[in-house]
Every structure is written in structure tokens, then in C-alpha cells.
Design goal:
The protein has two domains: 31-68; 79-195, Lysozyme. It has 13 helices and no strands. It has helices at 6-27, 31-44, 51-63, 65-68, 71-85, 87-90, 94-97, 100-106, 112-123, 144-149, 152-155, 167-181, 187-190. The radius of gyration is 22 Å and the shape is elongated.
């Protein structure tokens, strides 16, 4: 296609601009639409944390960073980078990182990295981890009595029900416990490993 007339160049530029705007509009969501999507995504999330759901979550975070990041989150970006590079977060690697979307849902933004460190230190990211010398079980290694002290509306069942081994109830219970008691129930925190 040979463009010689100024109006042809203008028409081409206008067409390209219109296509770009249509593409951007197709990828845009209002905050209300994002709230609806996030609620739907959380409802669809099963305990296996499927790769497709994690990819969908990552895609939405990349497409709408301002929705996911509060000003406080942006202030913590440097700290997050430092913590991720710290060797204590290296234990478990992808096995631990796969739980990040659930941790982000249940923990306050300022607590996410400490929670991720505790998962790494306590279970290495294995939701079926069980301490041979105690009743400690699951991602956050809940003791039987501690798990049973968490309201059933949070944990979904007693220790003996097996819910302690399911990632979402375990993470929800840990977030509840953190809000109630701080980080002191976890030895890797009190011992300085996850501070």
C-alpha cells in the first residue's frame, strides 16, 4: 500500500489509534467489575490452587496494577524485593510461592511476606506436612489445641476433620490467629528467622 496523500496518512493514523483504543477498552475493567471478578475468582478457587486460576490472578494483577496496589503496597515494594532475595525465603521456592495468592487474600498487605516466610520455615510449602514429634500439621504447622481454638467459621472443622491440611482453611486460620495473638505463636518468628 503506497501512501501519498496527506489524508491517506491521516486516515491510517486514525484507524491505528481507533484499533488501539478498542484494544485498551476491551482489557479495561471498572473497580466494581474488578471487585465482582475478585469475589468470583475467590469462590472458584479450590484447595488445589490450580495453575489456571493462579495464571488468571497474575494476569489481572498485571493488567490492573492500581487496583491491586495501595500506596502502602508501593512503599513496601523495595522491602518485598529484599525479603524475596533473602535466603530464608529460598526454602521451598515455588512450593511456597504457589500459596501467595491465598496469603494475599487473607493477610493484611504488611503481613504477607512474614506469612510467606513462616510457610517456608514451618512446612516448606507442603500442605500435608506433619511434625513427627508433635501434633503440628499443615502449612503453618498448627498444633491440635491451637487449631481447635480457631472458630469453626474460620477453620471449617476441628483438627481431626483434616481441614488443618487444606491450604485455604490453614491460611485463613493463620491470618485469624495473627490478628488475635500477633506472630508469637510461631517459633520462626519469635526466634528471629522471619522478622
Amino acid at each position: 500500500m503506497k501512501l501519498t496523500l496527506p489524508h491517506d496518512v491521516f486516515r491510517l493514523a486514525l484507524t491505528v489509534t481507533a484499533l488501539m483504543l478498542l484494544t485498551l477498552a476491551a482489557a479495561a475493567h471498572t473497580p466494581a467489575e474488578l471487585d465482582t471478578w475478585h469475589a468470583d475468582w475467590t469462590a472458584r478457587m479450590d484447595y488445589s490452587v490450580s495453575a489456571a486460576l493462579l495464571a488468571e490472578f497474575d494476569d489481572m494483577q498485571q493488567r490492573h496494577p492500581s487496583y491491586w496496589q495501595t500506596p502502602e503496597d508501593r512503599l513496601h515494594e523495595h522491602a518485598v524485593t529484599v525479603v524475596r532475595s533473602n535466603t530464608r525465603m529460598g526454602r521451598g521456592g515455588a512450593q511456597v510461592e504457589r500459596w501467595r495468592p491465598l496469603v494475599v487474600v487473607y493477610f493484611d498487605a504488611a503481613d504477607v511476606e512474614t506469612a510467606m516466610c513462616l510457610i517456608a520455615a514451618e512446612s516448606g510449602g507442603n500442605p500435608n506436612a506433619k511434625n513427627r514429634r508433635s501434633s503440628a500439621a499443615g502449612l503453618f504447622q498448627f498444633l491440635r489445641n491451637t487449631w481447635n481454638s480457631v472458630p469453626l467459621s474460620v477453620s471449617g472443622g476441628s483438627y481431626d476433620s483434616g481441614r488443618v491440611y487444606q491450604p485455604e482453611p490453614n491460611i485463613a486460620a493463620a491470618a485469624w490467629l495473627k490478628r488475635r495473638s500477633g506472630w508469637t505463636p510461631w517459633t520462626p518468628y519469635t526466634g528471629g528467622q522471619c522478622r
